[in-house]
Amino acid sequence: MKVVIGLGNPGPEYARTRHNVGFDVVDHLARKMDAEFRMSSRFPAELAEGTLEGERVLLVKPQTFMNRSGEAAGPLLRKKGVSPADVFVIVDDVDLPVGRLRLRKDGSAGGHNGLKSLIEHFGTDQFPRVRIGIGRQADRDTVQHVLGRFSPDEALVMEGTMQRAAEAVAAALRSGMDRAMTEFNG
Question: What is the b/e burial string over 25-45, where b = at least 16 CB atoms within 10 angstroms of the residue's CB?
């Protein structure tokens, strides 16, 4: 089983914000897999399960808020017996331009508190991730920026980007991370 964790914040006030692109991508994957999210009775997360590229996949949207994502994901992985190497994390990245994708096999949190929480609860930074560029505005506070919504032009770009991110996860399952990185990092 593979686990795809989209990072974001729960609640309608955070829907479609820059910080919630992880949730948006796993929503794309759920539609592609014809799977429906349900709140878990055991973990603070919404879960959806199905098949993608012939692989059983569990989609996860932690409901603990971004900075505490590991509190939901860590116990879930342990209970399911899934190694962090079999996880894909979908996360926003202010250091990438809007719409840019960056797939990585592993690495540091890079200042991202959601990734810091996952690394703490997984006990390793050795897990694949898809970083999605949300841009940075020099004249705007970072917290206000990530919790803000995309401009109409950016939203058009991001719709295609979220679809490409979902395709990148499928490609990694089908052909491996190295080939997916070659195809989607650019």
Answer: bbbbbbeebebebeeeeebbb
